[in-house]
UniProtKB/TrEMBL annotation, chains A, B:
Molecular function in Gene Ontology: DNA-binding transcription factor activity; transcription cis-regulatory region binding
DNA-binding region: 40-59
Pfam families named among the record's database cross-references: TetR_C_43 (PF21597), TetR_N (PF00440)
Entry keyword Glycosyltransferase: no
Keywords: DNA-binding, Transcription, Transcription regulation
PROSITE patterns, per database record: HTH_TETR_2
Record-annotated HTH tetR-type domain positions: 18-77
Protein name: TetR family transcriptional regulator
Length: 201, 201
DNA sequence: TACGATACGGAGAACCTCTCCGCTTGGCTA
DNA sequence: TAGCCAAGCGGAGAGGTTCTCCGTATCGTA
């Protein structure tokens, strides 16, 4: 899981480099939260007390920095899937609903930083994040499907994308309750049988 | 409809100004299609053969230019709603599905230019576009609701936002059929009864 | 302590958005 | 047809951004 593809030992970082990296991630978290995923990277470097060159050495582009900011949240989301699945008092339907709510909150958080990353899933270093989330979604969805509470023709990637869509469409919405309404509707769709026997392609 | 709020006659534009405006819209259509809604406005001005100042006099910001590019498409979409409703051979369900497909195609067109505008509905001059679309959606949705083929607790704005979400989430998707699958799912939700009697808030 | 690899910082190039102002030109009026 | 003037134009430029390059400082080791 943590072994690098190259096989050789990952070169140990200098302590000041690690420190600066942490500072950058912390600053990025604040600034992205305040100004959205399009915030100035210069501002982040300034806030972290380092030069722009240092920022770009650690994070060659915006996506990588976004991914770093979100890593812990992504992990939390995956852990949440495990927790919910382990909880015996919850029905498969409830597990799915609760996890979807958590995922929506995550995607809408920080002015859509999470969504921004998931949308551009094809970015080189964003892929990991995306895959991890889809895997978590798959476990929750499969459980629901086994219990007959989710349609069988639905793929985990589609579920993720649907909720991401709700997040993206409502990030700037004035109507505060809209995201919740749309998620509820989407869950109805996941639960519903295909219309007129038309399964998904 | 076309009368200005001021009451006075809208000042007639000089012919060269009108010509330049048309050139700008045409160039914007091309450039947005090639580079997405975040394309360089300078590049658009260059392509149109005018200076940046001219672009900004006609279109004080990006949203206004986007709206201008999309005006004809928005009108086409509203006309389509009327056509579909008038067609007697179509069921209310089919009318809704067909219009939603057309809307999705519109929103996904030009790398999400349409979605970009609809998402930021609160922008000053984008509001008209947004309202017009929601009105069209309302007519199609009301028809479906009267015929019992769409749940009654759904608002037109939510329908629009759902499809916009599908568009936004799939603009950069590698999977070509995904948008269609997600729309189909969403339509199932529109059609479905609320789970466990839970209506939308 | 001395040395070399690692990492830093900031100057700067190239680009973007958006404004301002002097010059040009279309369209009316005499 | 000639002449006027407001509407409109272009482009210089201010201030911001992303991203690179390279001389310098620092860490960790021998």
């Amino acid at each position: 899981m943590t072994t690098a593809p190259g096989g050789g030992a990952p070169p140990p970082r200098r302590t000041d480099a690690r420190l600066n990296r942490d500072r950058l991630v912390a600053a990025a978290r604040e600034v992205f939260a305040a100004s959205g995923p399009g915030a100035s990277l210069n501002e982040i470097a300034r806030r972290a007390g380092v030069g722009p060159g240092t920022l770009y050495r650690h994070f060659p582009n915006r996506q990588v920095l976004l991914a770093a900011v979100l890593t812990d949240r992504v992990e939390a989301l995956c852990a949440r899937a495990g927790e919910l699945l382990a909880e015996e008092s919850l029905s498969a339907d409830e597990v799915l609903a609760r996890w979807a709510e958590a995922f929506l909150a995550h995607a809408r958080d920080q002015q859509g930083v999470g969504s921004a990353l998931l949308t551009d899933a094809s970015y080189d270093l964003g892929v990991d994040c995306h895959r991890v989330i889809v895997d978590a979604a798959a476990s929750v969805l499969a459980h629901a499907q086994e219990h007959g509470t989710a349609r069988c023709d639905l793929a985990a990637a589609d579920l993720v994308q649907l909720v991401t869509g709700v997040a993206l469409a409502t990030v700037h919405a004035g109507d505060a309750g809209q995201a919740g309404r749309l998620l509820s509707l989407t869950l109805d769709a996941v639960h519903a049988a295909p219309r007129k026997g038309r399964a998904l392609a």
